[in-house]
Amino acid sequence: MTVTFEELQAFLAEQFPQGARYGTLEGLGDGWAEMKLEVDEGHLRPGGTVSGPAMMGLADVALYAALLGKIGLVPLAVTSNLNINFLRKPVAHSPIRARANMLRIGRATGVGQVYVYSEGMEEPVAHATITYSIPANR
Amino acid sequence: MTVTFEELQAFLAEQFPQGARYGTLEGLGDGWAEMKLEVDEGHLRPGGTVSGPAMMGLADVALYAALLGKIGLVPLAVTSNLNINFLRKPVAHSPIRARANMLRIGRATGVGQVYVYSEGMEEPVAHATITYSIPANR
Amino acid sequence: MTVTFEELQAFLAEQFPQGARYGTLEGLGDGWAEMKLEVDEGHLRPGGTVSGPAMMGLADVALYAALLGKIGLVPLAVTSNLNINFLRKPVAHSPIRARANMLRIGRATGVGQVYVYSEGMEEPVAHATITYSIPANR
Amino acid sequence: MTVTFEELQAFLAEQFPQGARYGTLEGLGDGWAEMKLEVDEGHLRPGGTVSGPAMMGLADVALYAALLGKIGLVPLAVTSNLNINFLRKPVAHSPIRARANMLRIGRATGVGQVYVYSEGMEEPVAHATITYSIPANR
Q: Is beta strand A96-105 parallel, antiparallel or unpaired with respect to B78-86?
């Protein structure tokens, strides 16, 4: 692996100065990453449910972490396609976790998938497939 | 049309008390809606670009508005699938707009598409296709 | 499980009289199914590669099999959304296999994912996420 | 426009020797193309409905035509992502038409959307968003 947990953590903190809003890195391995989001009022929908955009944002940054763990700290990698299925209603006011793993890393793009979990439930609350565009001169 | 612009505006303000973070309703017609988001620091990525989650969130709520304009103020309609392609980099610090229109409204689901625009650019910056699940007893 | 391997095999043969074009059932379990397609000239692209539509068709029917194995032989379940990422070029003239598993089965819809493999390669050649619409009065 | 209707028609006939199975070119313009498929027994599902794979295949090749009309006859452009929503049941035994238009053509990828129509119905039966990967040295 090109990048250590500490290096990636520092890089994400720098890229997302609003920090906690996008979640924190919890695990990093060969082609995978895990992130956690402590939900606050800004992430909620009526009834205390975590909002769709909060889950999408966490899934997006978790796969970004998994990709950067493999290709190095490329700041210009950007999401080009995201497809998400919302499967179950998350537990109200509970943190959410995203487990992301790459399916393919090519010359110009990286594709991976993400499972989103709600603390207190076994089954995933969402599943996403995401493509990142990787800049040519990295 | 079942719902007026003012009724929908009031409903969205009630559903999303954090208000401006999700955008404001700008237009409503038969099966379509338009929303605008004044970007603030929380919506930005390095370089001043509007973040992916901000665009996804605006697209999602714009199609929700278009759907509710047709079926009435059903609070329990939830997003079941969202697919988004990011097409171009938005103008830094510029507001974004979403124009959503329904492609089909069935018994249990509604499907539509959304174009996201960045003020100051003619071509769309993103395009999304979204499915809403409609509760059985509405 | 509601349905046996033999019952599902017979049902698919009846539903798809053109048979082999859509593949044959190879395995069935609790929420999963595996299908195989012997590629013929009609499934090929220039260079002997298996065509995208052949992979999409196999993925689609494999998840249909996984769903029916759980809910019973419901002929009116139809695909409502399919998202597929093509990851690698399949081996020329080699059979392809689809391993499908359900992520969620609800009242009105079932969502699952499918990995498509090309015989002779370890990594998947495609990954799909598919939603089936389940008729109300089954 | 780089390519004429006749040049593209000849190119598609050469690329897809099984010809009619994938449809015929009906129109070509700046960033758009229209194709038609005369459905035969191999494209049908029980009840005489056009199958999902037949609609996906037609959508795929229609956007391929729209892309090639802009970038020239590049044989190595391949589909990398396809997302399709099935909206309505097509008319039994009726031809289907696909109207494809590009949303963006970049250095390495092209993104577009396709509406699929069934002859005899006004509303679309399916809507797809497709990404093509464009080879580096064209």
A: unpaired
Q: Which of A76, A78, A79, A80 would you mutate first to test chain D, the one with the most D CBs within 10 A? A: A80
One-letter-per-residue 3-state SS of chain C: CCCCHHHHHHHHHHHCCCHHHHCEEEEEECCEEEEEECCCHHHECCCCCECHHHHHHHHHHHHHHHHHHHHCCCCCCEEEEEEEEECCCCCCCCCEEEEEEEEEECCCEEEEEEEEEECCCCCCCEEEEEEEECCCCC
**CA distance to partner chain C, nearest, from residue B35 (Å):** 26
For residue range B3-51, what is the model confidence (pLDDT) as tens digits?
999 999 999 988 876 655 678 999 999 999 999 998 876 666 666 678 8
Ordered domains of chain A (ranges, CATH): 5-133 (3.10.129.10)
CA–CA min distance D22, chain B (Å): 25
Find the length of chain D: 138
* E strand intervals along D62-108: 78-86, 96-105
Residues A77-89, mean pLDDT to the nearest whole number: 95
Cβ atoms within 10 Å of C20's Cβ, excluding its own: 10
First to last CA, chain A: 17
**Cross-chain CB nearest to C129 (options A83, A88, A123):** A83
| Closest CA–CA distance from residue B22 to any residue of chain D (Å) | 25
Q: Look at residue D71 and give its three-state secondary structure.
A: helix
Question: What does each C-alpha distance from D111 to B22, D79, D103, D132 come to in angstroms?
Answer: 27, 10, 6, 6
What distance in Å separates the CA atoms of residue C9 and residue C26, rounded to the nearest whole number?
Answer: 9
Residue contact A107–D81, C-beta within 8 A: no
CA pair distance B61, B11, nearest whole angstrom? 12
For residue A108, give the nearest of D81, D83, D108 by CB distance.
D108
What percent of chain C has a predicted confidence (pLDDT) above 90?
68
Return the H-helix or E-strand segment holding B56: helix B52-71
Contacts of D103 in chain B (CB under 8 A): 85, 87, 124, 127
Q: Tell me the CB-side half-sphere exposure of residue D96, using CA atoms within 13 A.
A: 36
Q: Which of A66, A37, A46, A40 is nearest to A126 (CA)?
A: A37
- Chain-chain contact of C133 with B107 (C-beta, under 8 angstroms): no
